[in-house]
Design a protein that fits this description.
The protein is of the alpha/beta class and 834 residues long. The protein is 46% helix and 14% strand. It is elongated and about 125 Å long.
Length: 834
């Protein structure tokens, strides 16, 4: 078919969509010299008309034409709304295996929209008259044979990074002008949401952009103009000549707006020119957080925790169990509907039998007809019951999803909650599409932001989490062809709380809400660092509140694991999936996983995974535990069991008990907390000084100093001043030269330390190993080994030597112990258990 013939035929045609769509498509295939569905795929397995049509009910398919990996194509009648046709394709995109292109046509226009994951969506249009041009025909032909030509170059990640950096620059300028951090964050969040709302038509088109444009030339009107807009978004009403919907939700709870100068308005104007409709809120939150926190500005270009990593938890904890539930429910629904069809066939057979009998005899057998009528009525009741059973199973599953609740008790900017919400909405949508394909009614989506709950101690991050969830919900609705909520646009998200997840205001553990599952990435903080970061008072309260459940020097993340374990044991939560530092596999932290295994099971774990934390690459363990499991996987491999050290197979080594003979033998090296170390030359000068006023030599308080490098390489020759753990300031001052040195080199720095004990006893080391000091007096030598090393190395060390905290000290001086420690057997044991 020539272009002129095609254009002439379809310019004059006035056929309805149903009457003309297949003929139009076949003609188009001839024009473009591509195969039509019937020729290319007679069985309709990968290229067909009416994909998903229900032959039983006569319902139309998900798309008028479908080609796997290429497109879904929907027709409308002449001059009909192609946006409505696009929305229909979006609703069925999942059932159509998410084709990269979604095409709509009214037989005189072809609108091609891109549908690739993580790309900014684009729209292309070809008209009937354009088809005279070879370039237009070539473009349309690519839909059939080379859809990759339409793939957008710009990714959503790149777009979001660009947008976030611009707003981070604005936030930094506002902070530098002295505005409160939360006020700046709240204001920036509002601006972001206004841009997003304008680009998806929740705000009237160009309303916000025109306000910025005018304010750029008259900066003094920016603040009052924004204040007025925020008020209208809070309550709804007229803004100038345009009506603004009621947004509510807490984001627009007052009219606070900060003044903006021309330079700042230029930043906002440039950001508003971007397409905010496709912005990725999960990345946005992380980048904004770095922009608003002065300590994290250098991380603006750093990577964020990508969704694939988060899905290592969301999939096994949420998606896979709920998918299994739907597959079981769908199998029962199929049985119900198959039974209904079988009974319907029996009714038709009864009618045919009655008709045949009448045709043969010419007489009506009233008794036989009454029996047939009664049986038909009973069978009709069976059909009704079968259909009702099928509907009930579908509705029960939807209710399960509608009431399903996900808690992230350290939610940060909401990335875990955002992805969990999208997965729940996808599960609901998939179930509704499956049900519709089976002949049941497809209801509107019911799962919403109320499905996710969060706890976050940082006020800014908690608000950011709410914005992330709101944007994610609206984007999902639009992407899948559904209208966003109105009046209010934003449902209140009081379910994301700003508070401490571990402690109440008093001395009691905090309470978590009853939920279906718990997920998240709680903070990591070593048992010793907790004191300096969180403060003595808080850590003491925390350890006292959890003293029976968590080891005193376990990592901070263990408290989240224990609370999740308690929730599962109490029956208030089904499953949990949390990220931990990979040190949870050993030492005091591993005791937490031992408790987990006493009350439930670890069903999926990744023992040592790369992760991005505050812009830095770290190694983590991912642990999923709880009920309702049907298999166990470790590092992606199915296993029969998972032990508390996140290994599998053979003996459960973490259950091994310490021999009484070996208790109190191994000690961590000392921690000086100050510049107590001196050069060897300085030490030797002090050693030959005359005796001090107390008649004691300086050798009492001077010791050779080893760190791990000294042990594995040539010793550096350093010494250290050590006044022990019980010497008073007066006693220490009697050693004149070493004491004067410590006054000058150590005391000023110790005066600013957080812990009171370090400030008061400034002449002593931060942590002395009193137990080891008692043991070493009985020895001539002891054994030392590096805490962190590629190979296990043990060396004899003289008892006079002071070892730093990166060395472990074994208080034994016999050759048998030294030989056992250096054996291959012990090396394997220590690498597995350490």
């Amino acid at each position: 078919m020539t272009p002129d013939a095609f254009i002439a035929k379809w310019s004059a045609a006035s056929l309805t969509e149903r009457a003309g769509s297949q003929t139009h498509f076949n003609d188009l295939c001839k024009l473009l010299d591509v195969e039509d569905p019937t020729t290319a795929d007679p069985k309709g397995e990968w290229y067909c008309f009416e994909r998903g049509a229900n032959k039983t009910t006569g319902a139309r398919g998900w798309a008028d034409v479908w080609k796997r990996g290429h497109f879904g194509w929907e027709y409308k009648g002449r001059h009909k709304d192609l946006d409505a046709a696009y929305a229909q394709l979006q609703q069925y995109a999942v059932a159509l295996e998410n084709p990269p292109l979604l095409v709509t046509s009214d037989m005189v226009r072809f609108v091609i929209r891109t549908n690739w994951t993580n790309t900014v969506s684009e729209k292309h249009e070809v008209t009937l008259d354009d088809l005279r041009e070879p370039a237009a025909r070539d473009r349309l032909r690519a839909v059939f044979v080379e859809p990759e030509r339409f793939k957008p170059a710009k990714t959503i990640t790149a777009l979001t990074g660009e947008a976030a950096e611009r707003f981070a620059a604005l936030a930094i300028r506002l902070r530098e002008r002295g505005h409160d951090a939360h006020t700046v964050a709240h204001f920036v969040n509002r601006l972001v949401f206004c841009m997003f709302a304008e680009d998806i038509a929740l705000l009237p088109r160009e309303l916000f952009s025109e306000l910025l444009e005018r304010a750029f030339y008259e900066p003094e009107i920016a603040q009052p103009g924004l204040r007025e807009l925020f008020v209208k978004m809070r309550d709804g009403g007229m803004f100038g000549v345009q009506r603004v919907d009621w947004f509510n939700g807490g984001l627009f709870d007052d009219d606070t707006a900060l003044p903006l100068g021309r330079d700042e308005l230029k930043i906002v104007k440039d950001a508003a020119a971007l397409d905010w409709s496709d912005i990725d809120p999960s990345i946005l939150g992380t980048l904004f957080e770095r922009g608003l926190d002065p300590d994290k500005r250098s991380q603006l270009g750093a990577h964020y925790t990508d969704p694939d990593k988060i899905m290592l938890i969301v999939n096994p904890v949420i998606v896979e169990p709920l998918t299994r539930e739907w597959e079981a429910a769908r199998a029962e629904i199929e049985k119900d509907l198959a039974r209904a069809q079988e009974v319907a066939s029996q009714i038709r057979a009864l009618k045919e039998e009655s008709s045949t009998a009448f045709a043969l005899s010419g007489e009506v057998d009233e008794e036989a007809d009454r029996r047939a009528w009664r049986r038909s009525r009973r069978l009709q009741g069976e059909i009704t019951r079968a259909w009702n059973n099928a509907k009930d199973r579908h509705h029960r599953y939807l209710e399960r999803l509608r009431t399903f609740r996900v808690l992230d008790p350290a939610c940060g900017s909401g990335n875990f909650l955002y992805l969990a919400l999208l997965q729940l909405k996808d599960l609901e949508h998939r179930a509704n599409l499956d049900a519709e394909a089976l002949g049941l009614e497809r209801p509107a989506p019911q799962v919403g932001p109320e499905a996710v709950k969060g706890i976050e101690i940082n006020l800014y991050a908690a608000e950011l989490a709410r914005v992330t969830v709101w944007i994610g919900e609206i984007q999902w609705m639009r992407k899948n062809g559904f209208a966003a909520n109105r009046n209010p646009v934003l449902k209140p998200l009081d379910t994301i709380e700003c508070r401490d997840a571990l402690m109440s205001d008093g001395a009691d553990p905090a309470r978590w809400p009853k939920v279906s599952v718990i997920i998240g990435n709680p903070p990591f903080l070593g048992g010793k660092k907790m004191l300096s970061v969180l403060g003595d008072s808080y850590v003491e309260r925390l350890r006292e509140a959890y003293e029976e459940q968590v080891e005193p020097f376990a990592d901070l993340v263990c408290y989240w694991f224990e609370k999740a374990r308690q929730a599962i044991a109490a029956g208030s939560t089904e499953r949990a999936g949390l990220v931990a530092t990979n040190s949870i596999r050993g030492g005091a932290s591993r005791e937490t996983l031992k408790r987990v295994l006493q009350t439930t099971a670890i069903f999926e774990a990744w023992s040592d995974e790369p992760w991005i934390l505050d812009g830095a690459a770290v190694r983590v363990s991912i642990v999923c535990f709880g009920t309702g499991i049907n298999r166990q996987e470790l590092d992606g491999v199915e296993v029969s069991s998972i032990f508390s050290d996140l290994t599998s197979g053979g003996a459960d080594l973490p259950q091994a008990q310490v021999l009484n003979e070996n208790r109190g033998i191994c000690f961590e090296g000392g921690q000086k907390y100050g510049a107590f170390d001196i050069s060897g030359d300085q030490a030797r000068k002090w050693l030959v000084h005359p005796k001090n006023p107390n008649s004691r030599p300086n050798s009492d308080v001077l010791r050779p100093y080893y760190n791990a490098m000294d042990l594995v390489r040539r010793p550096s020759g350093k010494w250290i001043v050590d006044f022990g753990s019980d010497m008073t300031e007066e006693q220490a001052s009697a050693y004149e030269a070493p004491f004067d040195y410590v006054v000058e080199a150590v005391k000023p720095a110790r005066a600013n330390m957080a812990r009171e004990i370090h400030r008061i006893y400034w002449w002593r080391h931060g942590w002395s190993r009193i137990g080891f000091e008692k043991r070493r007096k009985e020895l001539g030598l002891y054994i030392a080994t590096p805490v962190v090393a590629k190979h296990r190395i043990f060396r004899w060390v003289h008892t006079k030597v002071f070892c730093s905290n990166l060395l472990d000290m074994i208080a034994r001086d016999d050759d048998t112990t030294f030989g056992i420690l250096h054996s291959r057997f012990h090396e394997l044991w220590s690498l597995r258990m350490g």
